[in-house]
Design a protein that fits this description.
9 strands, single chain, TIM Barrel, 12 helices, alpha/beta, nine-stranded parallel beta sheet
Length: 286
């Protein structure tokens, strides 16, 4: 959890938008997941989410569902992913968040999972289908292990739920940009800035926007939204890895690195432009 805190503190000091990348663990392979994670961290990704495959990924769209299915067919399970975390941690200090559903964790054992995840080097966990109102037991074991507990907030979230997540969530708050499942979209919702402001009014914890963020233009747009601290790019990155390395293809990690650098630079550039504009406004106003 401390790695996540230091990461967001450092980025806020630099006025940088955090780039969070999601990878389905084990797709295209365990080895390539590790290589892609290390390449991404070296190319500008600030936080990595490793998705633990589950047979009924109700929150995920077709791209990630297909990746999860491929990983399951390869025999990737919770223990497999924890070993990947351990290998990545031996080579990088990039913050690592595990993203999955409650069933695989329950079957593995809550306390055992939290302890093993922390020992492997994970910094936080997002259990997609666990509502904050029912997360008491999980929060307890996660806190004992030193893991951040990350929760989702959506456009449909009530003020009561926003207040609850602001209170119990740690690491960062995951703001879903739109209702529905993960997946690439052409445009961001017009009411996204309003949702971020609603959440920000209840907390000073980092707010990271996901679902539908897929290209530099999206990252640049979020970078100018008041209260946003980061973005999550998932489906577009999973698709790229499959195009490059799926079905035994020998892809090019330079394309992966370029993709990550472009996303990071888009956020950094627009953040700087926005700050300069505000500074000029303040000067002129005075």
């Amino acid at each position: 959890m401390e790695r996540l805190q230091r990461c967001f503190d450092r980025l806020r000091e630099r006025n940088e938008l955090a780039l969070v990348l999601y990878l389905t663990a084990g797709d295209p392979s365990e080895e390539l997941t590790i290589e892609a994670a290390l390449c991404s961290a070296a190319s500008g990704a600030d936080v990595l989410e490793l998705g633990i495959p589950f047979s009924d990924p109700i929150a995920d769209g077709p791209t990630i569902q297909a990746a999860i299915d491929r990983a399951l067919k390869r025999g990737v399970r919770v223990a497999t992913v924890l070993e990947m975390v351990r290998t990545i941690r031996q080579k990088s200090e990039v913050p690592l968040v595990l993203m999955t559903y409650f069933n695989p964790v329950l079957r593995y054992g809550l306390e055992r999972f939290a302890l093993n995840a922390a020992q492997a080097g994970a910094d936080g966990v997002l259990l997609t289908d666990v509502p904050p109102e029912e997360a008491g037991e999980w929060i307890k074991v996660a806190m004992q292990a030193g893991l951040a507990t990350i929760f989702l907030l959506a456009p449909t979230s009530t003020e009561e739920r926003i207040r609850l997540v602001a209170e119990i969530g740690t690491g960062f708050i995951y703001c879903i940009s739109r209702t529905g499942v993960t997946g690439e979209r052409e445009q961001l919702p017009e009411d996204l800035p309003e949702l971020i402001c609603r959440i920000r009014s209840h907390t000073d914890k980092p707010i990271v926007v996901g679902f539908g963020i897929s290209k530099p233009d999206h990252v640049a747009a979020v970078a100018q939204m008041e209260g946003a601290d980061g973005v999550v790019v998932g489906s577009a990155f999973v698709r790229l890895l499959h195009e490059e390395f799926g079905e035994n293809r020998h892809g090019d990690f330079e394309r992966v690195a370029s993709f990550v650098r472009a996303l990071k630079e888009a956020g950094r550039r627009k953040r700087d432009e926005g700050r300069r504009t505000r500074d000029r406004t303040e000067v002129n106003g005075n």
